[in-house]
Hints:
By secondary structure, this protein is of the alpha/beta class. It has helices spanning about 55-60, 80-85, 95-100, 135-145; strands at about 75-80, 95, 115, 125-130, 130-135, 145-150.
Amino acid sequence: MKMHELAPAPGSRRDRRRLGRGHGSGRVKTSGRGTKGQNARSGGGTKPWFEGGQNPWTMRIPHKRGFSRARFKVVAQVVNLRDLEGTFANGDVVNLVALRQRGLIRDVSKRHPVKLLGDGGLTKRLTIEVHRASAGARAAVEEAGGTLTVLEDMAGHPPEAPAAAPSAGLPAL
C-alpha cells in the first residue's frame, strides 16, 4: 500500500474543525488566522463589495440625469421571418412555447420578450403570438394570409390600452 492509496473507511465522517479550543485542537493561539491584520481581528474582514480602498463602484457611477443602469435593460429575443419559414408548416400556431421547443428562443418569461423582425420572406399562413413585432414583419405576415397577435408588454398592459398619462388638472390644449 502506498500513501496515495489511503482513503477513509466507507461511511466514515470526519469531525469539523473546532477553532479557538486550546492546545489539544492542533490550532493554538491564532486559530489559523495568521498574525495580526484586518482578517485576524474579531469581526474583521471586508464586505463583498469592498474594492481594496479604491473609489467604490457606487461613487464611480454617474450622478447626472440620463444615466441608466444596465440591470434594468430589457433585451428582446429576436426571431426573424426566415426562421419561421424554415421551421413551421402552413397553418401552424407560433407561440412562445412552440418557439422554445424548436430552439428559436431561450426563455419564455416576460423578462425576455420575443420580437418578430422582418428579415427574410414568409410564404406560409401562420398564427403568430409574440410580445413585439416590427412594421415590416407585421405587413409580411398579413400579406401571407396569417395573423399576428401582440401579447401584453412588460408592465402587464395590453397593447391596445397604453397607460394614460396623469392630467394634473390642466385643460387640454
